[in-house]
Amino acid sequence: MNALLLDLRSDHHHMARIMKLMRYAVNPMIEEQSLEHLELLGECIEYMAMFPDNVHHKTEDAIFEQLVKQDKAAVVYVETLQHEHVELAKKSKEIASLVHALENEHIMSLDNLINQTIEYIELQTRHMRIEEATVFPLVDQKLDISDWKHIIKVAPPRQATPGSRFTQKLESLQTKYAGISS
Known about the structure:
Number of domains: 1
Distance between the termini: 31 Å
Shape: elongated
CATH class: Mainly Alpha
Number of helices: 7
Oligomer: single chain
CATH superfamily: nmb1532 protein domain like
CATH architecture: Up-down Bundle
Largest sheet: none
Radius of gyration: 17 Å
Strand content: under 5%
Structural class: mainly alpha
């Protein structure tokens, strides 16, 4: 399996953890109308807007475009996943805006934030499941070394190396909320 595809799978592992943290943060909002974990939700959505929206999904899009060149039938999956990348980026910005408004004590309905967050978690989780189960195996099977060389040229720099702002943010979340296991 190509190293970049392994990196994307590792990203999914981390993003699944972020989805669990977001679910943990939103539960008190649902059950008690409590903003107890609003900061956690804000930090999670900030990470999702920073790395997956700006690097991870753009890398996948570059891979998916190359996949369609090699396997026209893959367009069925690719179009849906690329549309979801746009939708996820839009939703992460909306949630960040709602969190920011609540942090600044703007009066608003908590239900909107709850609904948006739950929809986001469900879409992101389903989206990763489809990529892992269906598209990544197809990518691994269909793409060759020349395809990967092209992808590396057109994909955004990953910058998820130790010390990068993406890695620092993820490590900060993992350290700060290590005791949360939901």
